[in-house]
Amino acid sequence: MHEQHVFSARDLPYGTQLIPLAAIFVELGKEAHNVHVRDQIARWYWCGVLGELYGGATETRIARDVVEVVEWIRGGAEPTTVRDAHFAADRLFTLRTRNSAAYKGLHALLMREGARDFLSGVPIDIQTYYGESIDIHHIFPRDYCEKRGIEKAKYDCIMNKTSLSYKTNRMIGRDAPSVYLKKLEERNGVSATVLDDILQTHVIDVTSIRADDFDEFFEKRRLALLAMIERVMGKKVE
């Protein structure tokens, strides 16, 4: 799971999906070391997570996936889980807590895709995750949003959250992005260009966040997250 940047039980989307995953690796043996095979397994995994297919009664799906994923890797048809999976674009608006597998999945995906901490600038791997207490935090701070009448349904969903360290979140505080980004530049002695590069690893639109333009930021990030979802699932969102 570390390869997919799921580093703790708290952030594991589905414990039940580990059962077929382990069985698939056992069945494949050395075949699982092939990069193309691992890409196929990753696609199946993210279809299960983002399609939210392992949340109910899963016995039938587990048994079917073990057989079908192995057959697919060996030249057969796409497994049912890959075919069944779909992600509705509006689902992003309701991803607000770890109660959702897709919420935890996007947290992991951002780290997997190369998200770097705003303060340290280092990519988030397992060492950073534990050493710097990485968690899911607001990008436009909650207090800032509430004072400006931004509705909770928008500021508290995944579009306004990302993976950051405890120290970074403390530094952000209640400030507007334009203010805390300036503080980060001054504290770290980095240029705006360097910090902009870090922001982009979180699929954050630089122009809108620096202008404190929440609506523009929100829409640009919504589209960027959907593009990321399409990429890992290998299919269009609805």
Automatic annotation (TrEMBL):
It comes from the Bacteria. This is HNH endonuclease. It comes from Geobacillus stearothermophilus.
